[in-house]
Write a structure and sequence with these properties.
Strand content of chain A: 15-25%
Radius of gyration of chain A: 30 Å
Oligomer: homodimer
Number of strands of chain A: 22
CATH superfamily of the domain at 292-406 in chain A: GAD-like domain
Largest sheet of chain A: 8 strands, mixed
CATH topology of the domain at 292-406 in chain A: Gyrase A, domain 2
Number of helices of chain A: 15
Shape of chain A: globular
Helix content of chain A: 25-40%
Mean pLDDT of chain A: 94
Strand order of the largest sheet of chain A: 6-9-10-22-21-20-17-11
Low-confidence stretches of chain A: 576-582
CATH class of the domain at 292-406 in chain A: Alpha Beta
Amino acid sequence: MESTAYRTHGCGELRPQHVGQRIKVVGWVRRVRDLGHFVFVDLRDRSGILQLYAPVQSPCYAELKALGREWVIQAEGHLRLRESPNPALPTGQVELKVEKLVVLNRSQVPPFLIEDETDGQEELRLRYRYLDLRRPIMQRRLELRAEVLHVVRSYLRSRGFLEIETPMLIRSTPEGARDFVVPSRLRPGTFYALPQSPQLLKQLLMIAGYDRYFQIARCFRDEDYRGDRQAEFTQIDCELSFVTQEEIFAIFAGLVREVYAQVLGIEIGEIPRLSYAEVMQRYGSDKPDLRYSHAWEEVTDWAQGQGVPFWAGRKVFWLWVPQGKASRKQIDRWQTIAKEQGALSLATVQKERDSISSSLSKFFSLETLSLEGEGLGLWVGLDKDKPAYAALGAVRNAVLRDLNLPPEKPWAFLWVKDFPLFEEDAEGRLQAAHHPFVLPHPEDIDKIEEAPLAVRAQAYDLVINGYEILSGSLRCHTPELQMRIFRALGFSEEAAQAKFGFLLEALSYGAPPHGGCAFGLDRWVMLLSGGQSLRDVMAFPKTTSGADLMLQAPAPLDPAQKAEVLRWISADESSAPSTFVE
Amino acid sequence: MESTAYRTHGCGELRPQHVGQRIKVVGWVRRVRDLGHFVFVDLRDRSGILQLYAPVQSPCYAELKALGREWVIQAEGHLRLRESPNPALPTGQVELKVEKLVVLNRSQVPPFLIEDETDGQEELRLRYRYLDLRRPIMQRRLELRAEVLHVVRSYLRSRGFLEIETPMLIRSTPEGARDFVVPSRLRPGTFYALPQSPQLLKQLLMIAGYDRYFQIARCFRDEDYRGDRQAEFTQIDCELSFVTQEEIFAIFAGLVREVYAQVLGIEIGEIPRLSYAEVMQRYGSDKPDLRYSHAWEEVTDWAQGQGVPFWAGRKVFWLWVPQGKASRKQIDRWQTIAKEQGALSLATVQKERDSISSSLSKFFSLETLSLEGEGLGLWVGLDKDKPAYAALGAVRNAVLRDLNLPPEKPWAFLWVKDFPLFEEDAEGRLQAAHHPFVLPHPEDIDKIEEAPLAVRAQAYDLVINGYEILSGSLRCHTPELQMRIFRALGFSEEAAQAKFGFLLEALSYGAPPHGGCAFGLDRWVMLLSGGQSLRDVMAFPKTTSGADLMLQAPAPLDPAQKAEVLRWISADESSAPSTFVE
């Protein structure tokens, strides 16, 4: 830390080399220990913790003793070597003999322990977030977050990306989730929407010739916050012109490699690639956790000869878990999960040192399986025509979790590519699997009208440890192809013009071939920092019900303001001024 | 630009050193010139412009000739030296002989010229912003903006600032302007507000021990957009703990120095400082344009002896404009302006080579003025008790503008400090001059209750060329002092708790001394880039009536969505769930 009028050093910076110097530090009182002959105070600032002390004969003794937890003080004195060093602390070899003390501010007794291991429940910590954020582990996480962004920016800049800010008050566009809307006062009856992502704006920047763009972009989704989601979140948002999918893989693998090297000191090597079809058949998931090598293998041909009645005419998949050992209860649970996810059967075989057992032993000899070593095997049967691969993923996850298997490596990266362009919703209607601007695979363009579900997209995800960390695609860059896709999605010419007219028009003025991606920054930083939740890596997160417990937001407006907002909203937009001239 | 599958070089990068190489470029057709024996095409990408050509005997001749403006093409061939170089173009010594041409996309004829000097009116250019942004001057401005942010981030990082993101969906707090509000769906009847600035959040980060924070923060104000304002704008937002005002001046002068050195190659030297009282008396403005050295001088003592009836008992100020020469019409205009701004009189003296004249010559001998050289002098009389210094500023600005005086230097920087803590609104009620969290000058704390208008604040602005580019202050860090200020502003204990309870509580848990500032990034980049308007330095700006002409936002919602929003808003918030538990 810089030497200033208030301090000469940060608390955490002092080392034996500073012994004998006159030192001034500021910080928060972590604790006060009165040993009779001496009083010791742990002082904490962002740089770390330093032990202060005063002997009983010092005038500062009483002053130090009177300090309370979390008081803000300035202490001045000489640094000396400790008689009993504390190896757990970077400053553990030294301590400051306080010769002058100034109390800069007092503190009430905090409602929970300000330590990495705290006694505060999360609701209380969110309510007093400014105290929670004092915990060193939270400071390290936010420092790591800033460091990731620094490495990301440096890398993208070095690859010719230009950082450009796009607006937050935009127009509502259908991208899956519900928009947050903002009533307009100057044009009553109309609304802005907060962006779910800068998707169309970054495409417009490519059409505008910016070639390579990035932005650390705040995005908003008004979802029902099941699980670990936040109403606002941050994307590393990127777009490139004149680019192939291969080049995108290389550039962003390079970015990931740089972040792991610079932030964690880890060399991650090459990132493997699998198609969507492959990951679904091997792992039953488009975001498999490849820290575990366990993969499903299709054994349909073999299975048809085994005389198992519930395998007849079905696809059968096999998973071998070396060393695995399951209880009856676990197997029951997995069968329930498999059925819920659409599998038609689940059977197991258990091989131990001296025995091999399976409910299928009545159909064929288990010895013919030629299993190597001990372990657990699972067979899952799927419908031949509509194989519910998701069941394979659900069972794999449940097995790995329930058997408490340790990951085979700390980090596993995977590109998943060739996603489908379309999917069917619950009512059997065609919808965009990613978003409606994705470029189809060139070999599949002819199938858009005839066999849309067979059209592969030039879309890809980067999966890290089972989390989708990046998602992206090449985009349609001609109005004709874009309109074919809108039509396949059920838009009439008029509806497409009403919703996406400005995009179709922009594509008709010389749009370059382009594509891009976005990283989910919060989730990635959570993984990188070892956090358990997105809330661990955001300064002021919201609860799953969208509340900021510290600010007490959202909040009622005062009645006059609320009446005014209601007036704007209720207005008939056709009565609004029709011109926007400056 | 990186060599990729699509291109080997950027158009603007090619130089004589590349002559003879096989080159592949992509870009937009700027124009096609058919000279009969040859066809020439100017091709444009973000890096610049390159001349392509094909001789009439080449198979590419007809293809190049058929290209339209703004078509996107890929051209491959050998580079050669031009016979007649174009010194105006960085690539003007070379041209590409096209041997292979691929049309990547066609374009409609653009509605205006895509050149620095365009024929498009602003409304049309905003409607087709993606075409407007193709103009090289716009690309240079957005590149400069990105460069400024890069230098700012590097500098702040080197000074120990941590970049931290704060939320956009916060609680409405009174900070002068009107908030944009966002209805909450999960808690009907309540609202989020978009931040006017992260002011309280950054103070909470200081209370949380983050020591030095910055953020490039999007801010929102729902104002009536008189003149050059934007509904959303970007701040370089900074806060520091354990800091003196002097240190803040040094750190941020350093940042400004770094930006000018790195971005413009200009050494700006020391930044002078004046108090608010001084700038008001010398320049009649708290943001004087010091590219002009013209300053008012108080001559009240002298004036009292001159027998001018309308000077009796008044404060009189004198401004000398060397070489200035005013018409009767101009002087009439300035008199109107002076009176509108509360001045009581304006008189002038004109000195030319052979003559000196003034309406005041009947009262005293003009020779006694001892004016050096030719020029124009102005006297403005102000009320002794309530001197309307703003009139001095308005007259100074009008004189400098009307006389078309050239600036004496391209850049002028000024710190203005010791702003008043309070001011009176139109109804004579006390209000915060900056915001209610500013720390009073230590010498003036006793006057908060007795003479609030005499209390100076530890608040400061950085003025560049007459624009307020930075504004900041030290902040109250004890709940007692903060509450005294709230009380002076007319808040009861209950009202203060209701509005700022979380801040008062946070201050009671060990808040460090802290302060900070925010730069208005858009305006600063406008100055740095020579732009005329904030819209020149934002990718997708809004009109003064808050409209995005390209996206056509704000827009009506579809009826179902609108009905839903109305339902949320109309709900009685007391019926909302009372708990926010995860």
